[in-house]
C-alpha cells in the first residue's frame, strides 16, 4: 500500500475512534407541575437523547415513532446511530387514553424541550430537524406547520431547520378521524391536517413515502398533493421522494436521503 494512502486511512480511522456516543434515557419533557397533575403524562412523556460526546454545535434530529397514535415506543432508527448527529427520540401519550390534540401538544412540548436544552448535550438550537415515521411523520408536520403549538412554549416553528416526515398523513390522521366518528376511508382536511397549514415561509421540507402502489390508504397521493401545494404557494425548499420497491415500512432506506438533506442545509 502506498504510504500516503496508509496515512490517510490511519488518520480517518483514528478520527472515527475519537468520537464516542452517550445515551441519556427517560428525561421528562414537561415541567414538574404538569407531571404531578397527570399520572399518564408523567409515565409517558419522556425522551432519550443520544449524542456524540465532547462536541458542540452539532445537528439534532428529533424522531417521533409511528404506531397510528395508538401504539409504539421511542427508539433510534439504526441508520441514525454514529452519524455525528444528536438524536432526540420521544414518547408521547396515546389513544385511547387521550384524544386529539394531545398527541400534537406532546410533540410540541418535546420539540420545545429540545430547543431549550440541546446545548447541554452539545447540540445547536439552530440545527434542529424534526422527523418521524407514519404517525410520527404526521406529528412532525403538524408541529412544524401549525405554528400555534410551539407558540405556546414561546418557540417560533420557523426556527426548525427542516421537516422530514416519512410516510406521514397530510390529511387529518385516521385516528383523529375515528375520534370524530369519521370512517378511515373518508378523507378530510381540517385544522388537524398538515395540508391545512401549507405556507410559503415554512421550514425546508423533505417528504418521503414508500412506492405509491405499496403504500397504505393513498398515502403517496396525499403527500404528493402536500408537495404540490407547497409549490403552488411558492415554498422554495421542498422535495418529494418516493422509495421504489418499498411500502409503508420504508424507514431504513429513507435514512440516508434524510441525512443528505440535513447535511446539505447546514453546510
TrEMBL record:
The keyword Hydrolase applies. Residues 47-213 form the BD-FAE-like domain. Gene3D superfamilies: alpha/beta hydrolase. It comes from the Bacteria. InterPro entries: AB_hydrolase_fold, BD-FAE-like_dom, GDXG_lipolytic_enzyme. Keywords: Hydrolase, Signal. GO terms for molecular function: hydrolase activity. Residues 1-17 form the signal peptide. This is Alpha/beta hydrolase. It comes from Euzebyella marina. The lineage of its organism: Bacteria, Pseudomonadati, Bacteroidota, Flavobacteriia, Flavobacteriales.
Amino acid at each position: 500500500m502506498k504510504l500516503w494512502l496508509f496515512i490517510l486511512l490511519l488518520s480517518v480511522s483514528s478520527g472515527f475512534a475519537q468520537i464516542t456516543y452517550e445515551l441519556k434515557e427517560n428525561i421528562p419533557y414537561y415541567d414538574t407541575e404538569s407531571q404531578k397533575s397527570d399520572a399518564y403524562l408523567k409515565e409517558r412523556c419522556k425522551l432519550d437523547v443520544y449524542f456524540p460526546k465532547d462536541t458542540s454545535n452539532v445537528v439534532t434530529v428529533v424522531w417521533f415513532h409511528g404506531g397510528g397514535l395508538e401504539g409504539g415506543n421511542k427508539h433510534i432508527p439504526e441508520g441514525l446511530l454514529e452519524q455525528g448527529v444528536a438524536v432526540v427520540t420521544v414518547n408521547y401519550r396515546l389513544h385511547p387514553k387521550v384524544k386529539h390534540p394531545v398527541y400534537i401538544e406532546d410533540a410540541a412540548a418535546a420539540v420545545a424541550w429540545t430547543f431549550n436544552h440541546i446545548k447541554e448535550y452539545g447540540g445547536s438550537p439552530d440545527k434542529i430537524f424534526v422527523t418521524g415515521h407514519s404517525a410520527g411523520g404526521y406529528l412532525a408536520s403538524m408541529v412544524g406547520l401549525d405554528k400555534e403549538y410551539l407558540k405556546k412554549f414561546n418557540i417560533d416553528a420557523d426556527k426548525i431547520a427542516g421537516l422530514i416526515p416519512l410516510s406521514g398523513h397530510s390529511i387529518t390522521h385516521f385516528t383523529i378521524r375515528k375520534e370524530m366518528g369519521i370512517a378511515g376511508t373518508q378523507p378530510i382536511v381540517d385544522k388537524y391536517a398538515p395540508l391545512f397549514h401549507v405556507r410559503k415561509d415554512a421550514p425546508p421540507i423533505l417528504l418521503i413515502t414508500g412506492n405509491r402502489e405499496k403504500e397504505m390508504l393513498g398515502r403517496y397521493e396525499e403527500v404528493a398533493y402536500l408537495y404540490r401545494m407547497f409549490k403552488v404557494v411558492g415554498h422554495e425548499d421542498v422535495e418529494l421522494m418516493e422509495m421504489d420497491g418499498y411500502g409503508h415500512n420504508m424507514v431504513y432506506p429513507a435514512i440516508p436521503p434524510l441525512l443528505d438533506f440535513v447535511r446539505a442545509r447546514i453546510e
